[in-house]
């Protein structure tokens, strides 16, 4: 059969789709596509639900300790009405690192089950170690969670105190990261041998 005598492409496609096997295959593909959309939508909805302040403070370990400290800080209440919640500082924004953090956080569920910090006394005993983990993570990401909101290049130094101006200028020159100075901001500062700056020096020396 010559090309001129062949049915037009749309007709050939339609004839193929009318065959029982093709129709079933198409139906299965469509069902998988719809199921994928529903799954992805549900997955993202669940992810966002676990990022809310209500979820983070749903257990008494957080509600009775760091949440009470956080409510007294500028990140919770301020003149502009902009509130940074737990996930803004503890959960990365980009999808890959967010998933990594969520997977690591699953270990905290075991801590909840076994009562690792189920009393204020147990929490205080581990406060420094918990703080050090967060500092180490933020040193590794150049304080990414801070920089999601705060940008050194966007700061108007003339609106800052002289002390802040000097320190921010030095930080920019020396390549310092936010957490080296700005820790103990949303929660009580842990008491221990090293702060973030000392940890950074040790991590650098170990490389």
Structure description:
- The chain is mainly α and 207 residues long.
- It folds into 2 domains: 24-54; 61-179, no CATH class.
- The protein is built from 11 helices and no strands.
- The chain has helices spanning 9-17, 20-49, 53-56, 60-63, 66-70, 86-90, 95-114, 120-140, 144-147, 162-174, 196-206.
- The chain is elongated and about 80 Å long.
- The protein starts with 8 loop residues before the first helix and ends with a helix.
Question: What are the low-pLDDT stretches, counting only 5+ consecutive residues below 50?
Answer: none
| Count of runs of 4 or more consecutive helical residues | 11
The CA-CA distance between the termini, in Å, is 73 Å
Give the CA-based shape. Answer: elongated
Radius of gyration: 26 Å
Oligomer: single chain
Strand content: under 5%
Number of DSSP strands?
Answer: 0
Mean pLDDT: 86
**Biggest beta sheet attributes:** none
Q: Could you state the order of secondary-structure elements as H and E?
A: HHHHHHHHHHH
Percentage of helical residues? 55-70%
Please indicate the count of domains.
2
Give the structural class.
mainly alpha
């Amino acid at each position: 059969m010559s090309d001129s005598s062949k049915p037009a492409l749309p007709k050939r496609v339609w004839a193929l789709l009318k065959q029982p096997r093709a129709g079933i295959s198409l139906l299965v593909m469509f069902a998988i596509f719809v199921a994928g959309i529903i799954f992805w939508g549900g997955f993202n909805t669940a992810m966002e639900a676990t990022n809310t302040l209500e979820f983070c403070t749903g257990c008494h370990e957080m509600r009775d300790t760091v949440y009470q400290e956080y409510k007294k800080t500028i990140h919770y209440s301020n003149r502009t009405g902009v509130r940074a919640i737990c996930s803004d500082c503890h959960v990365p924004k980009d999808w890959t690192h967010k998933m990594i953090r969520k997977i690591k956080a699953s270990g905290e569920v075991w801590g909840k089950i076994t009562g690792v910090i189920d009393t204020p006394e147990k929490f205080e005993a581990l406060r420094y170690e918990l703080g050090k983990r967060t500092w180490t993570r933020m040193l590794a990401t150049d304080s990414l969670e801070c920089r999601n909101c705060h940008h050194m290049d966007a700061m108007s130094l003339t609106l800052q105190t002289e002390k802040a101006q000097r320190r921010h200028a030095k930080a920019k020159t020396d390549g310092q990261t936010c957490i080296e100075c700005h820790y103990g901001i949303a929660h009580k500062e842990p008491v221990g041998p090293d702060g973030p700056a000392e940890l950074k020096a040790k991590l650098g020396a170990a490389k």
